[in-house]
Amino acid sequence: MNETAILTQADEASLSPEDRAIWKADIAEAIDRLDEQERLVMALHYHEELTLPEIAHVLDISISKVKKIRDKTLKKFLNH
Questions:
Q1: pLDDT tier at 5 (50, 70, 90 boundaries)?
Q2: Is the pTM of this model over 0.70?
Q3: Residue 7, CA distances (Å) to 12, 48, 61, 62, 74 in order
Q4: Which helix (H) or strand (E) holds 26?
Q5: In what helix (H) or strand (E) does residue 77 lie, and over which residues does it extend?
Q6: Selecting from 1.10.10.10, 3.20.20.70, 3.40.50.720, 3.40.50.150, what CATH number does the domain 3-79 have?
Q7: For residues 47 and 39, what is the distance between their CA atoms, to the nearest angstrom?
Q8: DSSP state, 5?
Q9: Please, what's the largest Cα pairwise distance for the chain?
Q10: How do residues 30-44 score in pLDDT, each as one tens digit?
Q11: Under a CB-based contact definition with an 8 Å cutoff, are residues 55 and 69 in contact?
């Protein structure tokens, strides 16, 4: 997996358009390997660009749960 796939949303803003496209493609590929809830959170956050509160509302879970799922999933990306 390309190292740009593990960037946080704040880091994403500093990417060139080309690097951002690569980053988004890497995220999409990695998302395919996740369980359903992880996939939903990551797709909504990084592909659909929803905020954590928006994701919490859509999935009817707490913001802290969304953050925990996102953070856990990013750690999975780092370990693979």
A1: very low
A2: no
A3: 6, 16, 24, 23, 8
A4: helix 17-31
A5: helix 63-79
A6: 1.10.10.10
A7: 11
A8: G
A9: 34
A10: 777 889 999 999 889
A11: no
